[in-house]
Specification:
Mean pLDDT of chain B: 95
Oligomer: heterodimer
Number of strands of chain B: 12
Distance between the termini of chain B: 35 Å
Mean pLDDT of chain A: 90
Shape of chain B: globular
Distance between the termini of chain A: 35 Å
Number of domains of chain B: 1
CATH topology of chain B: Sulfite Oxidase, Chain A, domain 2
Number of helices of chain B: 7
Largest interface: A-B, 29 and 33 residues
Chain lengths: 202, 270
């Protein structure tokens, strides 16, 4: 590929293209919502789609490090913030869809659902963990936090685990899809664990 | 068949009906996949002709009826019922069918018959959901009722809806409709009915007994362990009016069925 121009630079078109591609699921949902293409339960359709896209983008975000190490080139890191912010974007839409379209912002019911339904609690916790990551994603915050920035952003790992539990917990009878996501995240986190673990001879 | 006469009684709700396209496109029929549109996309792979329904067990005259026999034998009528899914959405659907009691009586249940077990067609070649690697349901799909529930006048064997033949995804050619219970009790594409003296095993109870009981009566006071049953979304809903309504005991059919459960702790027998 011709991507790696110089040490850490991307061709100018790459970022805008990734931006547009990541926005596409949202654009499609918005179009379907206006065109009445979401079926008799549009809130459910949006909830499912935004949830799945949040997970997919989170997996892509975590894949950046793997790709960088594989290629031995630094350029993938230039896309990580955008992918992370898109993860947060879809996770936030997911939560807002639930609160607004599903529950109509009825505070008592929202509180009850968040506290009493474990899978919803877990999903909400995942979103809460990602909130400070989104806020501190700017270069300014990165500078200000210095070394602790990297530490803080390790919160993405528990968020990913909670995201998987959130998905798995909702399965009624067929675990195939949830298993696939869990496997992907297990590989992504396992790849890192391999690095963290003290080098043991096998 | 006899179309429902206007007005609202226990057999014909006057509430707004869910449009046919919604009721036929948004279904749970896990034999064809767990997505809501899977049944509409793949149920055509099931062949429903020829079809026969076998009645066995504690009956004086066990036997088999072809679909043609059934259609010729029982006068069809229209029933407009609420359908409350255990997933907390609901619809209003005009069914065409006949009371299950008429069929059962003809086979003469013996004095030992206390329960009625039902079984859905199981044909993996035509039902891609049953071939799914991660499915935790032990096919064929099975359901059950107590005999007095089965004989209740509300309990319907449906062969059509909205004045038309049942679409495959809605349980063609013949299905059960038990409007005061969660939708999964209304077993689709029935091939076998077995009367017995023991409470039969049902698919969902086998799969997760803590979440799905044998009775599964619609009950806003007993939550599903993973979600609330206090409310339902009446479909079609739209984004800015989610159509969230309170769920009623026995799905509003208490007058006709509450007596079946007098003295029973419905929290225990959920």
């Amino acid at each position: 590929m011709e991507l790696a121009v110089g040490a850490n630079r991307l061709p100018l078109w790459v970022k805008p293209m990734v931006f547009v591609v990541c926005l596409a699921p949202f654009a499609w949902l918005a179009y379907q919502a206006f065109a009445g293409g979401l079926g008799p339960d549009p809130a459910e359709a949006i909830l499912a789609s935004t949830g799945v896209w949040a997970l997919r983008l989170l997996a892509l975000t975590l894949f950046v490090t793997v790709l960088r190490q594989w290629l031995g080139k630094p350029w993938p890191i230039r896309l990580r913030r955008m992918l992370g912010l898109y993860t947060f974007f879809y996770a936030s839409l997911h939560f807002l869809t639930f609160a607004n379209f599903y529950l109509g912002w009825t505070p008592a019911i929202l509180a009850e659902e968040l506290l009493e339904r474990p899978y919803i609690t877990v999903g909400f916790l995942a979103w809460l963990l990602m909130l400070p990551l989104a806020v501190t994603s700017t270069q300014g915050w990165q500078r200000r936090l210095g070394r602790s920035w990297r530490k803080l952003h390790k919160l993405v790992y528990p968020a990913a685990v909670l995201g998987c539990i959130h998905l798995f917990w909702q399965v009624r009878s067929d675990v195939t899809e949830a298993l696939v996501y869990c496997l992907v995240f297990a590989l992504l986190l396992g790849w890192r664990a391999r690095v963290w673990l003290p080098a043991k001879k096998v | 068949f006899a179309p429902a006469t206007a007005g609202s009684d226990g057999f014909h709700t006057g509430e707004d009906q869910t449009p046919f396209t919604d009721a036929s496109q948004y279904c749970n029929f896990y034999e064809f996949g767990t997505g809501k549109s899977d049944p509409a996309d793949y149920a055509h792979e099931m062949s429903t002709d020829p079809w026969s329904l076998e009645v066995t067990g504690e009956v004086a005259k066990p036997g088999k009826l072809s679909l043609e026999d059934i259609l010729g034998r029982y006068p069809l009528e229209e029933r407009i019922y609420r359908l409350r899914c255990v997933e907390a959405w609901s619809m209003v659907i005009p069914w065409v069918g006949f009371p299950l009691a008429s069929l059962l009586r003809e086979f003469e249940p013996t004095s030992k018959a206390k329960y009625v077990a039902f079984e859905t067609l199981y044909r993996p070649k035509e039902m891609r959901g049953t071939r799914s690697f991660g499915s935790t349901i032990d096919w064929p799909y099975r359901e059950g009722l107590r005999l007095d529930e089965a004989m209740n006048p509300l309990t319907l064997m449906a062969v059509g809806m909205y004045g038309k033949t049942l679409p495959n995804q809605n349980g063609a050619p013949i299905r059960l409709v038990v409007p005061w219970k969660y939708g999964f009790k209304s077993i689709k594409s029935v091939v076998r009915i077995h009367l017995t003296d023991k409470q039969p095993a049902t698919s969902w109870q086998d799969q997760n007994a803590r979440e799905y009981g044998f009775y599964s009566n619609v009950n806003p006071e007993v939550d599903h362990p993973r979600w609330s049953q206090k409310y339902e979304r009446r479909l079609p809903s739209s984004l800015f009016s989610p159509n969230r309504i309170p769920t009623t005991m026995f799905n509003g059919y208490g007058e006709q069925v509450a007596h079946l459960y007098t003295g029973m702790d419905l929290k225990k027998y959920y």
